[in-house]
Amino acid sequence: MNAPSNTKILPLEHIQAGFDTLREVKQTFAQRGWFPATSGNLSLRLSADGADPLLVITASGKDKSVDTAEDFLVVDLQGKPAYPTHLKPSAETLLHTALYRRFPEVGAVFHIHTVANNLVSEWAAARGSVTFSKHELLKALQRWEEDAEIHIPIVENHANLPRLAQAMEAVIHPDVPAVLIRNHGVTVWGKSVFETKRHLEALEFLFEYQVQRWMIERL
Ligand SMILES: CSCCC(=O)C(=O)COP(=O)(O)O
Ligand SMILES: [Zn+2]
What we know:
This protein is 34% helix and 19% strand. It is built from five helices and eight strands; from the N terminus they run αβββαβαββαββα. Strands 3-2-1-4-8-7-6-5 form an eight-stranded mixed sheet, with helices on both faces. The longest helix is centred in the C-terminal third of the chain and has 25 residues. It binds ligand L4RZE5RM and zinc ion (ZN).
């Protein structure tokens, strides 16, 4: 772990457990090719009850398919490192902190770039959202009704991160745990690492389904 031994912010074991948890997720997603070209970022809240305003987040610009001692750091809800470190938090930390501030129950936020999520975000950008209905996997997003549907909002890919965070904050809905960023990727959240991973897997399934469906329809 890259935290100095005199860290007073939380028990070191607690921080180490957060690093270990995110490392497992990082390895799983890397094996799926979900972090091309250093893209993607992961974070979790360092307390089960939301009392501690500290997060573990991936360091910026790392090859996320490789494990090193410098993959994660701890930041506060403003995205500032919680202890002196040469590591830089993810360039997209503001997107994570905006979600933790807005939803005290959010325990983890994941962001990945895939061809499928980029294609869907581009295809539906003019509408401002993409809708999925009557899919079994909507249950993984807490939609249990037979005629369930979900609208995933899409924002433009502003290069200015505070602007991108603002755009995302303007469209997030408490019942829809994801935002697509046009030709960039998807940011997904949930109450726990388990729930956020389930949300992301369900959404990536739906994005791939959509892309393959267009291909079939054009045959
Ligand atoms: C080459 S990826 C461009 C930045 C990005 O979109 C991303 O998800 C990764 O940024 P980070 O600073 O978290 O490594
Ligand atoms: Zn990104």
